[in-house]
Design goal:
154 residues, alpha+beta, Alpha-D-Glucose-1,6-Bisphosphate, Chain A, domain 4, seven-stranded antiparallel sheet, 7 strands, 25% helix
């Protein structure tokens, strides 16, 4: 299991950040691994037990899978556990901590690329660096999106 941890400060209140983060249909706007919005399976508000089906693009290849929300505490915590159809697993934790007039966002990705020892070797050689780079890029996109101020024309 590999662990990647990244933190950034956002100049926005935790409630706004959290609401944008759980708006799965908007994930392709900021998360570089999503070219299409994840599909929420079932009805009702997002919370523990919510399941999503997703198609991601990682390392230049398409990967499909499902994830479930396993921890949910608005507006500070979202944790999902997912499995891809090719055997990889990932747990993502998004934690918000109020800081000044904004908040700090910590993202923790714990993953196993699957495919045994070959997956572990590939992870050490290039997958971990790619995951770190993709999270950095996605966090920068998310920061730009959440901090956008829209002018009101009168």
């Amino acid at each position: 299991m590999t662990l990647v941890r990244k933190t950034t400060h956002l100049d926005a209140p935790p409630e706004k950040v959290f609401d944008l983060g759980i708006d799965f249909k908007r994930w392709p706007e900021w998360n570089i691994n999503y070219h299409e919005a994840p599909e929420i399976l079932g009805a009702g508000p997002i919370g523990i037990g919510t399941k999503i089906r997703m198609t991601m693009h990682v390392l230049g290849r398409r990967s499909e899978g499902t994830a479930e929300v396993v921890e949910f505490d608005r507006p500070t915590l979202l944790k999902t556990k997912g499995t891809s159809t090719d055997g990889g697993t990932m747990t993502l934790t998004y934690r918000l901590t109020p800081a000044g007039t904004g908040c700090d966002l910590e993202v923790v990705a714990e993953y196993d690329p699957g495919v045994g020892i070959l997956g572990q070797i590939a992870d050490r050689l290039f997958i971990e660096r790619t995951v770190e780079r993709d999270i950095d890029h996605s966090l920068a996109n998310f920061k730009a999106l959440v901090e956008t101020k829209v002018a009101i024309l009168v």
